[in-house]
Specification:
With 485 residues, this protein is mainly alpha-helical. It has helices at 11-47, 57-86, 93-101, 103-118, 124-128, 133-153, 200-236, 238-252, 256-264, 266-270, 284-292, 294-307, 312-334, 347-375, 379-386, 391-402, 404-427, 439-447, 455-482, and strands at residues 176-177, 188-189, 272-274, 281-283. The chain folds into two domains: 1-44 and 57-101; 202-482, MetI-like fold (Orthogonal Bundle). The strands form two sheets. The chain has a two-stranded antiparallel sheet. A two-stranded antiparallel ribbon has the order 3-4. Helix 6 (133-153) packs across helix 19 (455-482). The protein starts with 10 loop residues before the first helix and ends with a helix.
């Protein structure tokens, strides 16, 4: 079987057109920026900055060509990706076959955007996101990886076992046919093989699952901790605020990366407190998890109790279900003591998870505290106090909803930071297993032969970069729209 080229037989027709479109776009943008700078400088020296009126005419004329050229370039890029759907296998090359593998993702994205654009006026801040081009691009990138992780779990995107090794496929280039492929096997390593003869593409898409499980969940737990502590600290002030702020500042005094490395080292993971009279040791991950994982449970109990305080039947039902279900999950996650063995977490993942929560919580606390100090002076808070509302009701149902804009933006940004930190830990071989397909570990494995075979390291690096870029653009879009409220 022949190796696949990047663009296949279609490249003979598409490559020249695509190259001309890209060059035209680059030259147009560069000329626009240069001419705009020259005209602005000339206008300042001739008429002065206060007397400058209207846009520069020549640069604006060039700007009219940027959008059409961008649209043509994007359309040709879509042809590369989607041509494999309607052409015989291999005709559209590696790019076309990658487009075929991601077909469920494209469909899910199309449906999501169609429904979101149709009902955006009924979807609050999420709907307003689709009024921001930057936010839409960021949302599309993030959801691409979210849907990829979902469909990988359904075996709809992945081509090979991410841990499987195939003889003769060590460090093979992208598009290399699989040696000794059996019936039903995917016939090529689309993005090549790594130094252990594993499929780079399969490891890359499988790695999205690891990142998109740990990063958002750990960030959500960190927000639960930060909100639960930040609300009373900002609202009540006094000694409570002083004590919690001092503890948060102690954690923030350590450099983030150094604190991460310290928490996930094998020596710290094995250290702990031995229970007298038993051989059991409370390790550092268990101690941290037992404390930090309590905060979501406390937050939800207080949330329902304050909301339905005047309706005892509903309050008891919601609080009881929260304690029952939350306590069961807490036992499995924090203590690995689920009596039905349904909920547990690997030790390597646990220490990374609690480290993310521990390091991010003080920063979230300071953001929430600052917002509460500002919002508690508003008239609607005074009105709630006059009505006789309890302090926790005011904090959770008056102050917190009005602080959601900055918190949602920070949540998106913090997932990006956490993704980078997970990649950094994996790169240094800390926390997760060395066989893990997470992007940081994969980059570390590929860097040893980077000058000879760059593809095993470049592919996960681009994936990591794209996800973080999408999260940053999404946060920018949310910030832009939240400021309009």
């Amino acid at each position: 079987m022949e190796p696949l080229t990047w663009t296949g037989a279609l490249g003979a027709y598409l490559n020249p057109v695509f190259t001309l479109a890209v060059l035209g776009l680059i030259l147009t943008v560069a000329s626009y920026l240069l001419l705009s700078a020259v005209e602005n400088t000339k206008a300042v020296f001739t008429t002065g900055p206060q007397n400058r009126q209207g846009p520069a005419p020549h640069s604006e004329a060039l700007a009219d060509f940027i959008f059409p050229l961008s649209a043509i370039t994007a359309l040709l890029g879509m042809v590369y990706l989607l041509a494999g759907i309607v052409t015989p296998y291999g005709t559209a090359g590696i790019i076309g076959e990658l487009g075929v593998r991601f077909l469920p993702v494209w469909i899910a994205l199309a449906v999501t955007f169609f429904l979101s654009l149709t009902y955006k006026r009924k979807l609050g801040l999420y709907g307003k996101l689709f009024d921001s081009p930057i936010g839409m691009v960021g949302f599309a990138i993030v959801m691409f990886w979210v849907f990829t992780a979902i469909f990988v779990s359904m075996d709809m995107v992945i081509t090979h076992d991410p841990l499987g090794q195939v003889s003769g496929m060590k460090n093979k280039l992208p598009g290399t046919p699989l040696r000794g492929a059996a019936e039903g096997d995917y016939t090529h390593y689309l993005l090549g093989g790594d130094n252990l003869a594993r499929d780079v593409f399969s490891r890359m898409v499988k790695g999205s699952q690891v990142v998109l499980v740990i990063a958002p969940a750990a960030t959500l737990f960190a927000f639960m901790v930060g909100i639960t502590l930040g609300l009373p600290a900002g609202y009540f002030g006094g000694k409570l605020d002083t004590v919690i702020s001092f503890m948060a500042n102690l954690v923030l005094a350590f450099p983030v990366i150094l604190l991460f490395f310290l928490l996930v080292t094998p020596e710290i993971r094995a250290a702990g407190i031995q229970i007298p009279g038993t051989g059991y040791i409370w390790t550092v991950p268990t101690i941290l998890a037992s404390i930090l994982f309590l905060f979501p449970l406390v937050f939800l109990v207080v949330l329902f109790d304050s909301r339905y305080f005047t309706q005892p039947a509903k309050r008891n039902l919601y609080v009881g279900l929260t304690v029952l279900i939350g306590g069961y999950i807490y036992l499995g996650l924090a203590w690995d003591a689920d009596p039905f063995d349904l909920i547990s977490i690997d030790g390597g993942v646990l220490i990374v998870f609690v480290s993310v929560v521990f390091v991010n919580s003080p920063t979230v606390f300071r953001i929430v505290r600052g917002l509460v100090l500002d919002i508690k002076t508003r008239d609607y808070v005074a009105a709630g106090q006059t009505r006789g509302e309890g302090p926790w009701y005011i904090m959770l149902w008056e102050i917190l909803p009005n602080a959601r804009g900055p918190l949602i933006v920070d949540f998106c940004l913090r997932i990006g930071y956490t993704t980078i930190l997970l990649g950094t830990l994996g790169f240094f071989g800390l926390g997760l297993s060395s066989e893990s397909p997470d992007w940081g570990t994969t980059i570390n494995a590929g860097r040893r032969l980077l000058s000879i075979y760059p593809h095993p390291a470049i592919v996960p690096a681009i994936a990591l970069m794209s996800l973080v870029l999408g999260l940053n653009l999404l946060a920018d879009g949310l910030r832009e729209e939240s400021l309009k409220d």
